[in-house]
Amino acid sequence: MPPEPVVPKEREQAQWFVDQVQPHEPALRSYLRNSFPVVRDVDDVVQESYLRVWRERGLRPVQYAKALLFKVARHLAIDRARHQRVSPEDSVGDFEGLSVMEDRTETVDVISRQEKSRLLAEAIDRLPNRCREIVILRKLHALPQREVALRLGIAEKTVESQLARGLKRCETYLRKRGVHHYYNDTSP
User: Fold this and answer.
1) pTM of the model
2) Whole-angstrom distance between the N-terminal and C-terminal Cα of the chain?
């Protein structure tokens, strides 16, 4: 039995998908691998993202297909990462060694910066109280070491030591979550 002919609306949607969504697959895969290395099956996230974008386009016009695709994929990846934390499985492999294409498109950069900033805030928030105060005063408020020591009533060496510990802890926290480079004026 021959397949049913595609009606014009479905043909139009299929063409829209091929033109507006599929060209972003390499960038999407790169973004997911860089931003969510704990997500084991990027293919599933990509396919589920495609399905959700397809359904959305079936309900209403989509003006910014790429932005919608990345937003959907980000939410799916976050859900998968949370699920994996709750029910961890054996790791499939080391993702650091993978060669991944870089994409410097605006959407990817904005989403990636937001995620990195959120993770950095979490890392700082998890520091011990004194260490957190020092990291915030030195790195976020850019106060000199001497002024931080005077404000907190501690030795400059203590500021230096606590800052080093705090930065190391933040770096470790970020690396465990797949952030290997954090370029921002306020980064530790």
Assistant:
1) 0.43
2) 65
